[in-house]
Amino acid sequence: MKKATLNVLFGCVILMFGTTVDLFSQYSSSVPGGAYDQKGSWVGNEVPSEQYKTLTIALNSTITINDDFSWGANVTVNGAFIAKSNFSAGYGGVTVAGGSLTISGAFGSGNLVASSGAVVKIKTFDAGTFDVKDVSRLIVEDGSCTLTSHSFIRNGATVEIYGDFNLISELVVEQGGALIVHGNFNATNNWAMNIEGNVVVTGDFTAKNGTIHAGGNVVIGGDFSTGGGSFGGTSNKNFYLLGSDPVVVPSNWKYGELSDFTKNESGNDALLGLVETVMPDLVNPSIVWVGGKDENWNNKLNWIGNRVPVATSNVSIKTTGFNPVISTGTLVEVKNLTFDAGTVLTLNEGARMTVTGNVSNIGASIMIKNSVSNPTSFWVKGNVSAPVSVEWTYPLGKYIYIGHGVDNALKTKYGSALLYRIVEGKWVAVGASPDVFNTDPLEGYAVGFPSSLGSAQAIISTGGLHNSDYSMTIGNNWYLVANPYTTYLDLESSGLNLGTALKTVYTSISGVGSAYYATYNIGAGIGVNDANRYVAPGQSFWIRNYSGSSTLSIDRSVRAHAAGVLKNATVSDDVFRIKLIKLDVSDEQAILFRSIGSEDYSPVYDSEKRMVNNADEISLYTNKSGRKVAINALPEMESVRVVPISMNIGSLVTGDYTIKASNITSFMPDVDVYLKDLETEEVINLRESPAYTFNVPAAVNDETRFELSFLKSVEAPKEEEGGSTTVETPSAQQPLITAYATDGKAIVNILDASFNHDVAIEVYDAQGGVFTTLQSAKSRTEVSLPDNTQVVIVKVIYKGVVKSFKLLKPVRM
Q: What Cα–Cα distance (Å) separates residue 422 from each residue in 284, 391, 428?
């Protein structure tokens, strides 16, 4: 781009070659963004082309560019900018303000400013300058960093370089700032450095022809040499060489050794933790596995010094003897983990391992074995430098919703599996192309093996461990979302953001086509069908979004350990659970009575029913505001509540069924619960008989077969002699009469052990006019309500008892 001289005049920029531009004109990305070269990714549908205009990546917007990127004016990143090749900033520089910038190539030139907690990841930093501040991070991931202009690492900020650092300019590391170099530090020619914070270098430190002032701490793992300049402010209390026999030039240079470092910095937890993470073998020597006895990780005879690692241990796996195996049900935690080439660490089904630091296993292998019923959880909080292998054993004859925890989980490694993905709401076979299966760590799939194979099949996927934050754009549809990690995913973690999607997650641990979905409501913290707050590693889950466009994001803080497929851990006496059971298949409905509940459907606290809709379907649900719901949050119990229960039964699963109040002993002790079979008019006290068996001779769809009546103890009006507490229960002497409104009708119920088939019903509008009167011989009667009023009065006369109900017709959503 031709360099121009800029003159600012009355809010305009006048370029000397004659072009006049509005000073405030700029390009801004749309939300949620998209590909850089797509019009829809930008406000105004204009792809940026005029480099004298500023360019802004908006908050909650992600822009991706595949080609080299170069820009003249300022680039501001409030959202996320992903550059898959090289990146150069012109005279305006690039400012990452609380967002993220990821560059898969080189940062070639320009001034980089990172602020407000920004995260910048760059493959190599070839030339330029940076100013990193406000607890932001700059990470040079794979190559060297060459600094050509005056740069700053401010208080709270970190610059981490996974290669060599070449300084040919000036650098200030303020107090509270940190520079970490995983290679060598080379400072030559005309340069200067002011260190008031922490500088940690794993390799050699060479300083020539420049000036360094070190009021902070310098920690070096290799050799040190200086000459041709000045290096002041150092002593054995802030300048440390941790190697066992470092080469020092000049030889009389005064420095502290490892013993000085641990003594002097004993209260400096931040520096101690930083150095131990970066150079674990120097600060905390490894516990070494030699496998002299067997493959058991917990056998002390397999470790040098007969010490089994603990959570603070650095571990080194050597090639002699047996390779280590962490057995089923075992929980192991270590700090850092390194391997010799050719070694293999195996985690058997159901094992759990946490590495709080880094894993270095170049030339080695980590094998994580899983089954659908017993997943393994492998959690690395730091970095993983080489691939891992994840093995899954799947049953035959059913599809399982899956994700994968590694990149490059190739379709070709899935052998005879049938693999499907969702495209525009429909299942599509993945086919032979491996690329489709690697597209998005958050995309879920269905995998199945034909029963004709005869035995369960194993799949091994080898690749880089998913260890980053991930996001995807969602529209108005159902989405199958993969747990991208080799750990459990905590649905109640703040690291999970479902965007505008409903706060309900659906899984199917028994395989696609089973009679139910495990459903978990995040807002209420309630699940049915054994759903709980954790999604297993390797499992996918359904969500439902109704908005046009939103962003779903998952970050690493969602990761957690859980032992196997957990039962619902939530125990609360305000939740009533009832199951529809046929042999070993069941479907569950939850009804909760809380202050968060409402008469109308809530997208936060109620959970829609995800239907199976096939000949094997067994579904139980309630209706609310015109929706079928599996988790129904109602207001707190007052005295009487009647809840209709509906069901779907497929044509291949007709016959005898049991409906059971599965938690009646832990449900509100002061509430009696009655189940009424609307077909036979039989009434069951679920406190006395929690299960009821009935027959379904033919397939049914949306049949309201039952009603639940909840009757709470109420305090009777006080008499002159004193009050008493009574519970209204149906009996031959005292029938229970209830009425409620639903879908333009009033439902009148009589619970009476000796029902006499003689019920009189009158309906009045809000002005007191008679809308209808009728005689009914049924214990449950549906009565149409007037259209011209929302409030009605229903009067019921039975066995000389007269009761009036003021009903509000519900609004259908």
A: 49, 23, 6
| 305-327 pLDDT per residue, tens | 898 999 988 999 997 789 999 99
Residue matched to tokens 């270098």: 201
Residue 542 domain-assigned (yes or no): yes
CA dist., res. 201 & res. 173, Å (int): 14
Domain contains 617: yes
Render pLDDT for 570-595 as a digit per residue (tens, 0 to 9). Answer: 457 899 999 999 988 899 999 999 99
Burial 614-641 (b: 16+ CB within 10 A, else e): eeebbbbbbbbbebbbbbbbbeebeebb
Residue 578 one-letter amino acid: I
- Under a CB-based contact definition with an 8 Å cutoff, are residues 126 and 108 in contact? yes
Q: Domain tally for the chain?
A: 5
Are 354 and 332 spatial neighbours (Cβ–Cβ below 8 Å)? yes
What residues make up the domain containing 527?
389-560
Where are the extended beta strands (E) located within 75-173? Answer: 75-77, 80-83, 87-89, 94-97, 100-107, 111-115, 119-125, 129-132, 137-140, 145-147, 151-153, 158-161, 165-167, 170-173
- Distance of CA 171 to CAs 152, 159, 232, 677, Å? 6, 12, 15, 80
Regarding whether 520 and 437 lie in a shared domain, the answer is yes
pLDDT tens digits for range 746-766: 888 888 877 888 999 999 887
Report yes or no on 363 lying in a domain: yes
DSSP string, 15-45: ETTS-EEETT-EEEB-SSEEETT-GGGBTTS
Dump pLDDT digits (tens) for 222-264. 999 988 888 888 888 999 999 888 999 988 888 999 989 989 9
Angle of CA points 424, 621, 686, to nearest 5°: 160
In angstroms, the CA 194 to CA 171 distance is 6
pTM exceeds cut of 0.85 = no
Q: What CA–CA distance (Å, rounded) separates 765 from 423?
A: 51
Are residues 221 and 340 located together in one domain of the fold?
A: no
Q: Which of 239, 261, 284 is the last residue of a domain?
A: 284
Angle at 715 between CA 710 and CA 719, to 5 degrees: 145
Are 279 and 292 found together in one domain?
Answer: no
d(CA 389, CA 405): 9
pLDDT digits (tens, 9 = 90+) for 462-521: 888 999 999 999 999 999 999 999 999 999 999 999 999 999 999 985 665 555 789 999
- Do 192 and 261 lie in one domain? The reply is yes
- Same domain? 776 vs 706: no
> For residue 493, is it within any domain?
yes
Question: How far is it, in rounded angstroms, from Cα 223 to Cα 104?
Answer: 31
| Rounded-to-integer distance, Cα 736 and Cα 713, Å | 13
- End-to-end Cα spacing for the chain: 57
CA-based radius of gyration for the chain = 34
